[in-house]
């Protein structure tokens, strides 16, 4: 099969768009989608200047998604003095898994000559995920602990690095899954939060002064295409799955979406675009100064922003102590 844009041989076919693309046109199409998302989400604020550049902290896990995001942002902004990239890697303390992906992060940051910071649960909280899974005082899935700790470290360190933006490598499959899960759980306040936290264009989100804004510029690219991009560009991505991966519900939704996508190509795109529009409407009502907005306060233990007396991270650490 021939590439739709040149005489080269197509190496991929996207059923949702009908496109057949050769290697170079495929790589270009992924890069274009990321750049278009950066523009549409207004990520480069007009106030940015070479004298006062923006600091963009990328949550760099060493998996294919964050590695591809870092590479494309680097290629896009390497010559642009208004943007400084920093890779931030979190070591959860998972034997034989995270060590290798940290190596991938170090290698990538060195190749691209970007600043790289590494922080660990062990140094910050005195815990390792391998031990948390053993203890399991709350009788929960590993990811339920891990997600809370990771979010805390990403936010806190992004703040310390004076980040203007915290970027993560969520792809189209990840975001369509989250959208569907939020729908099925019927939690409209959560949908509104999602918009203000990471989905809406920066200029349309309600102010959340205590958080570094987040962005997910890879969310128009399906997971398979991210993997193909990493492979073709020979990026140092780590592919093994975490041994504690346990989000059973997300796994069910993922299988459901695979089936739907196969029978109805384009389903992920339409779920996400409809969800984003609805999330914007929900955010008007629930977000920041909306009529049903939630009250935020400081955690009595660590001072981070929370809706409760003591934040979730501090109460989990307490039960693990
Ligand atoms: S899969 Fe779960 S336990 Fe493993 S690193 Fe990710 S969030 Fe943590
Ligand atoms: Zn081509
Ligand atoms: Zn706290």
From TrEMBL:
Keywords: ATP-binding, Metal-binding, Nucleotide-binding, Transferase, Zinc
Residue ranges occupied by any tRNA(Ile)-lysidine/2-thiocytidine synthase N-terminal domain in the UniProt entry: 56-190
PANTHER family referenced in this protein's UniProt entry, alphabetically: ATPASES OF THE PP SUPERFAMILY-RELATED, CYTOPLASMIC TRNA 2-THIOLATION PROTEIN 1
Protein name per the record: TIGR00269 family protein
Organism: Natrarchaeobaculum aegyptiacum
Gene3D superfamilies in the record: HUPs
Domain of life: Archaea
GO cellular component assignments: cytosolic tRNA wobble base thiouridylase complex
Record: residues binding Zn(2+) 1: 3, 6, 22, 25
Residues reported to bind Zn(2+) 2: 299, 302, 311, 314
InterPro entries: CTU1-like_ATP-bd, Ncs6/Tuc1/Ctu1, Rossmann-like_a/b/a_fold, TilS/TtcA_N, tRNA_thiolation_TtcA_Ctu1, TtuA-like_LIM_N
Molecular function per GO: ATP binding; metal ion binding; transferase activity; tRNA binding
Pfam families on file: ATP_bind_3 (PF01171), TtuA_LIM_N (PF22082)
Entry's Gene Ontology BP terms: tRNA wobble position uridine thiolation
């Amino acid at each position: 099969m021939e590439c739709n844009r040149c005489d080269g041989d197509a190496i991929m076919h996207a059923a949702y768009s009908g496109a057949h693309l050769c290697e170079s046109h495929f790589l270009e199409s992924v890069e274009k989608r990321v750049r278009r998302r950066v523009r549409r989400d207004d990520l480069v604020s007009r106030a940015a200047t070479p004298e006062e550049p923006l600091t963009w902290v990328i949550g760099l896990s060493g998996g294919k998604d964050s590695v591809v995001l870092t590479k494309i942002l680097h290629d896009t902004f390497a010559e642009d003095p208004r943007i400084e990239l920093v890779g931030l890697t979190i070591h959860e303390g998972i034997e034989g898994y995270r060590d290798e992906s940290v190596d991938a992060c170090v290698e990538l940051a060195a190749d691209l000559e970007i600043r790289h910071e590494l922080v660990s649960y062990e140094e910050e909280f005195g815990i390792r995920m391998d031990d948390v899974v053993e203890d399991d005082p709350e009788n929960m899935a590993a990811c339920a602990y891990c997600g809370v700790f990771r979010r805390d470290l990403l936010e806190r360190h992004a703040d310390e690095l004076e980040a203007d933006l915290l970027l993560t490598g969520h792809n189209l499959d990840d975001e369509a899954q989250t959208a569907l899960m939020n729908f099925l759980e019927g939690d409209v306040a959560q949908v509104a939060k999602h918009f203000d936290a990471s989905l809406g264009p920066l200029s349309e989100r309600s102010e959340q002064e205590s958080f570094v804004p987040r962005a997910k510029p890879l969310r128009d690219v399906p997971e398979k295409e991210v993997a193909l991009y990493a492979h073709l560009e020979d990026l140092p991505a780590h592919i093994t799955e975490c041994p504690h991966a346990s989000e059973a519900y997300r796994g069910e939704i993922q299988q459901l979406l695979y089936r739907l996508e196969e029978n109805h190509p384009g389903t992920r795109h339409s779920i996400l675009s409809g969800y984003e529009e609805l999330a914007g409407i929900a955010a008007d009502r629930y977000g920041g100064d909306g009529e049903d907005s939630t009250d935020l306060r400081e955690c009595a233990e660590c001072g981070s922003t929370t809706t409760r007396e003591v934040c979730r991270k501090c109460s989990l650490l307490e039960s693990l102590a």
